[in-house]
Amino acid sequence: MIFWSFSFIWFKVANVYYRPITIVFIRLFISVIILTSYLFLSKKFMKIRKEDRRLFFMLAMFEPFLYFLGESFGLTYVSSTVGSVIISTIPVVATIGVWLFFKEKLKIINYIGIILSFSGILVFIFNKDGSLSYNIKGIVLLCFAVFSAVGYNLTLSKLVDHYSPVYIVNVQNILGALFFLPVFLISDLKSFINAPHSFISFKPILELSVFASCGAFILFAYSVKNMGISKANVFSNCIPIFTALFSFLLMGERLTFQNITGIIIVIAGLFLSQIHVNKKNIDDALVLTGKTA
């Protein structure tokens, strides 16, 4: 969770030197090399069933492609703390998606959690006079990332029973890198060539690849295996707290009493919205959503 929390900060640092598409493409490229090597050494490659090829294509289109377009460009307009708080609502919106598309019955406490979580977002982003505290473009783009992640969640729920989590992530990252490649070549290649390359400028992208895209995920998959999905996923609610703390300590981002109150309300809503959501393949998919790339 600490690695995933830092990912919002590492992106902000990398964005000083490189454009969002460049950061995402290189991050995916490096993560593919690491995860492919891991699967090769552990001999855990799997054959994709013919009927699942379309689902993997849709999966990669939702996340990392559409998700990272929203998250990366959104983070160029708002702080890392704001980004982590809005992205943390993915499980809440995914729960609504489960209810709408899979007719999964929710308990009253789940509805209360959903309302509470969105109320916390409103407390966080609006001033007392009703005006927005943060750039509307950034908020809209981050919300786009959230809905992309929900599409990913609904697609992933059809695959989690047949493939290992690491293998799914590796395939979607390979496809995601292929999706981003023409965009990178057309829009960012020239600026990338002219960028001031150094270890300092490249370090945050390397940290995103090694720690956020690979290390954190493998650690989390191990935790899910040994603790169970429900217990492990509870720790995800700590991400906006860690991000806010590290942003304050390392980047000097200020938190007001209103911001802190909003974060607390959002996290309380997250806990309540996830209580007794029973469908296993939906739970498995929810664990991966928004974290995998």
Features:
mainly alpha, 293 residues
Q: What separation lies between the terminal Cα atoms?
A: 14 Å
Structural class: mainly alpha
* Rg (CA only): 18 Å
Low-confidence stretches: none
Average pLDDT reading: 87
What is the beta-strand fraction?
Answer: under 5%
Largest sheet: none
- Give the number of domains: 1
Describe this structure in words.
Helices cover 76% and strands 0% of the residues. It is mostly helical. It has one domain. The two termini are 14 Å apart. 46% of the residues are buried.
Layout of SSEs?
Elements (H helix, E strand, L loop, with lengths): L1 H13 L5 H23 L10 H23 L4 H8 L2 H12 L6 H18 L10 H21 L8 H30 L4 H29 L1 H6 L4 H13 L5 H17 L6 H9 L5
Helix pairs in contact: 1-4, 1-9, 1-11, 2-8, 2-9, 3-7, 3-8, 4-7, 4-11, 5-7, 6-12, 7-13
